Amino acid sequence: MSTIYDVVVVGAGPAGSAAGYYLASRGLKVLLLDKFAFPRDKTCGDALTPRALRILDEMGILDDLLQVGHSANAVEFIAPKGHAALAPLPRHDRPSDRLLFVPRLILDNIILERAQAVGAQFQGPVHVTDIQRDGQEMVVTGEHRHQTFSFRARMVIVAIGANVKLLMQMKLLKKVPQVMLSARAYFEGVSTISDRAQCRFDGVPLPGYGWAFPLADSRANVGVGLFRAGLASLWMPRTAQIAFGTFLKTPAVQTLLSNARQVGPLKGYPLRADFAHAPTFGDGVLLAGEAAGLVNPVTGEGIDYALESGKMAAEHLLDMFAADDLSLTQLRRYDQHLRQRYQRLFVLCDRLRLLYLNPFFLNRVIKTAISNDELMKLYMNIVIENQDVYAGVAPKTLSKVLLGGRKSSPSA
């Protein structure tokens, strides 16, 4: 008789492996599947926010990551006109209260190994082609080395990132969603930003931004992200790789990388930031991480959402199993939990992007923040913790920016 798993998790990145960890640590029989063997590289900005680090600390692997990662003490925001605001990161007592950079080649493998250490099984490389219900069970089918396979489970979690082919096959998505475009390359010999992360709005098409994030051993992750949608598509480059080439030619970036050399190829990747309108469940299936559109529409950050939603999906299934209720009604409640936590944030982030990511406003914001600590702390909290987003679009904040930090008159 073939094995029936409690949960099959399709995709062993941060969302899938986090879900696998939380399920297996509670004694469930879990199988993680991925289209790659691990360790494998994943194109990303490699940033871990405090929110991500708190989950990783809870999983018992933060100490390992601190050994291989690189912490930044500040974030430098560079305006389209070139002036810069350096924002120190708030100092706290907990090891997770920091901004840490770990290449995904290392990060994802550590998370997967942690899930395996508590009992989750892993198979890769496998190519999952369909997920369907068969009576009381879910059947996951696909190919491994040109041989077909199928696994049976009570429930399935899908955490396949921006790849929507499987979701289209399952009819969970009716059309390909709008995506952000990004590209990044690694450089070594970048010592000038060892203590800070740079978010650059000079030399990149807006709405979008460039970055230079420090890694261990004087290496850096350098990249660009574009929001090529609506009217912006009229002036945007067709690909992030084209924008990256222009970004590298700007004088400031040339100076930054003057003693550096690129290691490895430039890699482009899409980002799904459509959670506000995306499906999050189906019959016998929960979606987690970027498969549910959980990438920040302003920053492009997704690892923290992946880890959080992977944990939420696992906890929701644990509750469903405990209640012996695997109905569609209970699956729908997972969507309700995600909406309660993230919906308002994503709607506000969409508004924040429309308001801020233009040359006029960015120049004003960064110039004002240089001399206004309160404003700088607000923006750091929005970028790092995804908190206070409403304050970022509130009339009081916007008037501060437009007035250059001066208080408006009572009649204003």
Stretches where pLDDT is under 50 for at least 5 consecutive residues are 408-412
SS summary, helix count: 13
Classify the beta-strand content into a percent band.
Answer: 25-35%
How would the global form be characterised?
Answer: globular
Name the helicity range.
25-40%
Indicate the mean pLDDT. 92
Count of β-strands: 18
Walkthrough of the structure:
With 412 residues, the protein is an alpha/beta fold. Helix content is 36%, strand content 26%. The protein has 13 helices and 18 strands. The strands form three sheets. Strands 1, 2, 8, 9, 10, 11, 17 and 18 form an eight-stranded mixed beta sheet that branches. Helix 1 links the parallel strand 1 and strand 2 (30-33). Helix 2 packs across helix 8 (303-323) and helix 8 runs antiparallel to helix 9 (328-356). The protein is globular. The N and C termini lie far apart (75 Å).
Key words describing this protein structure:
412 residues, alpha/beta, 7-stranded mixed sheet, 26% strand, disordered C terminus
Write the layout of secondary structure elements.
Elements: E1 4-10, H1 14-24, E2 30-33, E3 47-48, H2 50-58, H3 62-68, E4 70-72, E5 74-78, E6 84-88, E7 99-101, H4 104-117, E8 121-123, E9 127-134, E10 137-144, E11 147-158, H5 165-169, E12 179-188, E13 196-200, E14 208-215, E15 219-226, H6 240-248, H7 251-256, E16 261-272, E17 281-282, E18 285-287, H8 303-323, H9 328-356, H10 359-370, H11 373-385, H12 389-393, H13 395-402
Parallel strand pairs: 1-2, 1-11, 2-8, 5-13, 11-18
Antiparallel strand pairs: 3-7, 4-7, 5-6, 9-10, 10-11, 12-15, 12-16, 13-14, 14-15, 17-18
